[in-house]
Design goal:
Elements: E1 45-48, H1 69-87, E2 130-132, H2 142-154, E3 190-195, E4 198-203, E5 209-213, E6 228-234, E7 237-243, E8 265-274, E9 277-285, E10 294-302, H3 320-337
Antiparallel strand pairs: 1-3, 1-10, 2-10, 3-4, 4-5, 6-7, 7-8, 8-9, 9-10
Length: 339
């Protein structure tokens, strides 16, 4: 799954490895789940997804929920090899990305300076993060599939005739709540802070913030970019339901599956598995974009205690948008003069 967004300053901190996960669910939460001073399960710290499991099941693995032991071993070898190449400063297809000839923009936006993959990603036997539908694929509507194809064709090449033409990530707005807890090789950190009655999540990318009340209140009636989130504890699992999103389907989105509409409803579950692992489950329901709800189960790792979230400097000096539009007009003029 490609990652797209604005230019970022990312801390290349020493991170802790993610334990392997072999099925849709990891394991039962420990009876020794750490607690806050007021008794809630303690989810605090900086978390990110460190695994190599793709969101959707690759076409060549259709019908297979798991890899063989031999395939897992080969993937582990490749991850070790690619991590060594990244540390050596080798880029592009040499570290598993498509070549510039194959994809001049998508997948080649960032070199390893901007990314945290200085060590191997954790390999699993799972073939997709999506566990439902059983085929491991996003259940797009026909219209959403067309929008996805259009977004893919436009990404990085425009046309850029208006500030509305770049996608929301290029505009330094957001890449959407749906992928916020786990998406992105750079900017994918999330700091969770708890206080009595609230859980707050600070996402490094774009400095997105979510303040989630746990006091049993009903959803409000104000539509927002990140929706209206309310949470509750079910045993040791934090359950967050988010509705009342602003409709932004008319904007450009690098990934259509992250765009919000007024019918979007998210249900997230955060379950601490052990000291360094959280099972994060998200169910996405939006008939504007999908033919049915879909669910992904994502193992997220807790980073070392000294990990910091630094400024996400996107569009430094606000030069990027004017320069992008200036370049678009230059390209259009050249095209017109060559006719």
């Amino acid at each position: 799954m490609p990652y797209r967004g604005g230019v970022a300053i990312v801390a290349l901190a020493g991170l802790m490895a993610l334990p392997a996960c072999s099925g849709p669910s990891l394991t039962s939460a420990s009876s020794t789940t750490p607690r806050t001073a007021w008794g809630d399960p303690d989810l605090q710290g900086v978390w990110r997804y460190e695994g190599a499991i793709p969101l959707e099941r690759p076409a060549q693995l259709a019908g297979r929920a798991s890899l063989t032991e031999k395939e897992v071993a080969e993937q582990q070898r490749l991850e070790q090899e690619q991590a060594a190449k990244r540390l050596a400063g080798q880029e592009g297809a040499a570290v598993g990305r498509r070549s510039v000839a194959e994809s001049p923009i998508r997948g080649n936006e960032y070199n390893s300076f901007w990314q945290d993959h200085g060590r191997p990603r954790q390999v699993s036997s799972r073939t997709s993060l999506i566990t439902d539908p059983p085929d491991g694929r996003l259940p797009f509507t026909a219209d959403a599939r067309k929008a996805e194809a259009r977004a893919s064709a436009r990404y990085g090449v425009g046309p850029f005739e208006s500030y509305l033409d770049p996608d929301t990530g290029e505009r330094c707005l957001t890449d959407g709540v749906t992928g916020m807890m786990w998406q992105g090789p750079n900017g994918g950190h999330n700091r969770i802070v708890q206080s009595p009655g609230y859980v707050t999540i600070l996402h490094e990318e774009y400095r997105d913030r979510r303040v989630i009340p746990l006091d049993g209140r009903a959803h409000g009636n104000i539509r927002q970019w990140f929706g209206d989130a309310v949470g509750r504890w079910e045993g040791d699992t934090l359950v967050v339901e988010t509705t009342n999103f602003l409709d932004r389907t008319n904007y450009e989105w690098a990934n259509i599956w992250t765009r919000p509409s007024e019918s979007l409803r998210l249900v997230e579950r955060f379950k601490r598995i052990d000291a360094n692992t959280m099972e994060y489950t998200i169910t996405v329901e939006d008939p504007t974009t999908f033919t049915r709800p879909w669910t992904a189960v994502i193992p997220i790792s807790k980073l070392s205690g000294d990990t910091q979230i630094y400024e996400y400097a996107c569009h430094e000096g606000n030069y990027a948008m004017p320069n992008l539009l200036r370049g678009g007009r230059t390209d259009a003029a050249r095209a017109a003069s060559s006719r």
